[in-house]
Design goal:
single chain, alpha/beta, Rossmann fold, seven-stranded mixed β-sheet, four-stranded mixed β-sheet, 14 helices, 46% helix, 16% strand, globular, binds glutamic acid
């Protein structure tokens, strides 16, 4: 069985890029590990009066290009190695987007689906009481990720502000609008993914109007991918799935009605007018665009030879293993790699930080325009490298990102 530890995979991907770039050994070694990491133990009073103990993490991977930036996950399978991998990918994500930021990530091992809102609030505040000493607008700025929400960001910002004794909205992004959130943050990950899909379709000579889409994972990114693939690109969603199962209709599914059904029932399952489909079968559908939008390691050496999509737009972090990457490349599947495809979220988070620092807020059209410019530029940088060096798109993205981080380290005199 191939390696499925996300951190080992991240190191393997880096090694390939280091070799392709001819990176010196010291820079490569420094980039293989997080600069700093903190593990915390949280005691949280539950609604029934008992106390539960949770483990949490914050990893600051590399800050050569600016303060570390990246989300927080609340997930039962969260491990330090997963957080390290995600923090590494954040470093490459901010670099490929040419944002003046580094990369970080955090999380708490917990099952938020089994917790009440007040338990989640106490957990969120407990987490900030521990990691509050290492985060801040100039140091490290968290954001939402899997199973964390704008409300959780609000509690965390409030706790941090209380600790410091002043209002510090810039400590966290993805906040609700009345607390200094940015317009356009909530759908930014999916929107950015659709902008780069549009650019990919252009270079591949594919028409997006009427093109078919399958979406694996129906959380925030997956839901907005469904509605925006139609709104922005005229595409037709034919399948979608979540952790409970999937739905399929080759004639097309109304994305807004599907989102409404998911929000009402908690799942896409049993959406009227569709037939059931498993997550595994969904991935193998003959569609124009496949959007993995859930967790890591869904396209592996076990199923990569069965993927029939023309374009894979990775809104999830780490959905494809290195072995699968090679298989997809050899078979001519065009992959928009995660830290390019899903960078819309952190890009609008960066816009949110800028607006917080100025205490002056932009209209939605400005956010959309600037996001489009950033995504299009990053796509072109990666695509040029892909063409010039004849390497697959993920390696090309790594080459662009790693070279930028290495240059900043060199200029600082670290290597
Ligand atoms: N969690 C998101 C990601 O993986 C967003 C990070 C952020 O906005 O800082 O890119």
């Amino acid at each position: 069985m191939a390696e499925l530890n996300p951190f080992k995979i991240a190191q393997e991907q880096l090694a390939e890029a280091a070799q392709a770039l001819g990176l010196d050994d010291a820079t490569h070694e420094a980039l293989r590990w997080p600069m700093r990491e903190m593990t915390v133990t949280l005691t949280v009073r539950m609604d029934d009066g008992s106390v539960k103990v949770f483990r949490g993490y914050r990893v600051q991977y590399n800050d050569a290009r600016g303060p570390t930036k990246g989300g927080l996950r609340f997930h039962p399978q969260e491990t330090l190695d997963t957080v390290r991998a995600l923090a590494a990918w954040m470093t490459w994500k901010t670099a490929v987007m040419d944002l003046p930021l580094g990369g970080g990530k955090g999380g708490v091992t917990c099952n938020p689906k089994e917790m009440s809102p007040s338990e989640l609030e106490r957990l969120s505040r407990a987490f900030i009481r521990q990691v509050g000493r290492i985060i801040g607008p100039e140091k490290d700025v968290p954001a939402p990720d899997v199973y964390t929400t704008p409300q959780i960001m609000a509690w965390m910002m409030d706790e941090f502000s209380a600790l410091r004794g002043y209002n510090a909205p810039g400590v966290i992004t993805g906040k609700p609008l009345p607390l200094g959130g940015s317009l356009g943050r909530v759908d930014a990950t999916a929107r950015g993914g659709m902008y780069v899909t549009r650019e990919a379709a252009k270079v591949l000579g594919l028409k997006t109007e009427g093109a078919t889409v399958a979406i694996q994972g129906f959380g925030n990114a997956g839901q907005f991918a469904a509605t925006l693939s139609k709104e922005l690109l005229g595409m037709k969603v034919v399948a979608a799935s979540d952790s409970r199962g999937g739905v399929y209709n080759p004639k097309g599914i109304d994305p807004h009605a599907l989102v409404e059904h998911k929000q009402r029932t908690g799942s896409v399952v049993d959406f009227p007018g569709t037939e059931p489909i498993s997550n595994e079968d969904l991935l193998q559908l003959k569609v124009d665009l496949l959007v993995p939008a859930a967790l890591e390691n869904v396209i592996t050496d076990q199923n990569a030879d069965k993927i029939q999509a023309k374009i894979v737009c990775e809104l999830a972090n780490g959905p494809t293993t290195p072995e699968a990457d090679k298989i997809l490349h050899d078979r001519g599947v065009f992959v928009l790699p995660d830290f390019l495809a899903n960078a819309g979220g952190v890009t609008v988070s960066y816009f949110e930080q800028v607006q917080n620092a100025y205490n002056y807020y932009w209209p939605l059209e400005d956010v959309h325009k600037r996001l489009d410019q950033k995504m299009t530029k990053a796509f072109n940088d990666v695509y040029e490298t892909h063409k010039k060096h004849n390497v697959h798109m993920r390696l090309a993205a790594y080459m662009v990102a790693v070279a930028r981080v290495a240059e900043a380290m060199k200029l600082r005199g670290w290597v």
